Amino acid sequence: MPITSCPLCLSTDTVAFFQDKQRDYLRCRQCRLVFVPPWQHLSAAAEKTLYDYHQNRVEDAGYRLFLSRLAQPLSSRLPTPARGLDYGCGPGPLLAIMLREQGHTVCTFDPFYANQPQTLQSRYDFVTCTEVAEHFRQPRQEFQRLFGLLNPNGHLGIMTKLVIDADAFSRWHYKNDMTHISFFSEHTLQWLAATYRSRLEIIGKDVIIFTAQA
Fold first, then answer.
1. Across 67-88, average pLDDT
2. Alpha helix (H) ranges present in 149-201?
3. Considering the entire predicted model, what is its pTM?
4. Within its chain, how far is the Cα of 148 from the centroid?
5. C-alpha angle 143-107-113 in degrees, rounded to nearest 5
6. 182: nearest Cα among 29, 33, 69
7. Phi, psi (5° rounding) for residue 207?
8. Are 124 and 150 in contact (CB under 8 A)?
9. Are 197 and 213 in contact (CB under 8 A)?
10. Residues 86 and 114 sit within 8 Å (Cβ to Cβ)
11. What digits encode the pLDDT tens for the residues 103-151?
12. How many Å apart are CA 165 and CA 172, to the nearest integer?
């Protein structure tokens, strides 16, 4: 396998982490991102086909409960009203609806389902990114964009499951989704917080809030 630079921190100090019948998984020794090499990524068309099978409907009470694990702690940190962006909202932007119910103004963006580039030209009090970061092909550019969208003291709320260690990874269902190509650990989140001068809070197992410094 050729040497592959980390798509988050660009380090060339990457090593084999795990391999299954379908893909290889590399780990960066600097930021600890675990990632699938780019030549094993799905095409954009194949990726969207899989997303179209998702059943995340806005009227789904279970989905609302799932998203509330970010919506509630994020709302408790926001003034009312606040202005935000749901980045990667998917075809059913329930989180945006839930935050609007709390009195906030929320725009949406998704490269497949809400491709409205004008929403990326503003600054926001908060940005949400739920079950999206694991799909990032170019996480460095994506996080530069996300942190760049925040006002001073703005919040970036993320939901993604975290890598624990190689043994747990070998048994982890999360890696089996072929659209999941970037996997973050607590160390990776700390690297992001230091790089983008923000305060990190990990709430539960998969809810993360970064707060940008003024």
1. 96
2. 166-170, 186-195
3. 0.95
4. 15
5. 80
6. 33
7. -115, 125
8. yes
9. yes
10. no
11. 999 999 999 999 999 999 999 999 999 999 999 999 999 999 999 999 9
12. 10
Report all structural domains of the chain as residue ranges with CATH numbers, in order of start: 14-212 (3.40.50.150)
Using the structure block, give the residue that is written with the tokens 């899989």.
Answer: 50
User: What SS3 class is residue 35?
Assistant: strand
Token representation of residue 122:
């503003």
Q: Could you read off the pLDDT of 80-107 as tens digits, one per residue?
A: 899 999 999 998 899 999 999 999 999 9
Q: What is the pLDDT of residue 53?
A: 78
160, 131 contact by CB (below 8 A): yes
Tokens of 62: 């279970």
Q: Which helix (H) or strand (E) holds 67?
A: helix 61-75
Phi/psi of residue 186, nearest 5 degrees:
-60, -35
CA 205 distance to own-chain centroid? 14
Of 73, 68, 50, the residue nearest 181 (C-alpha): 50
d(CA 179, CA 51): 9
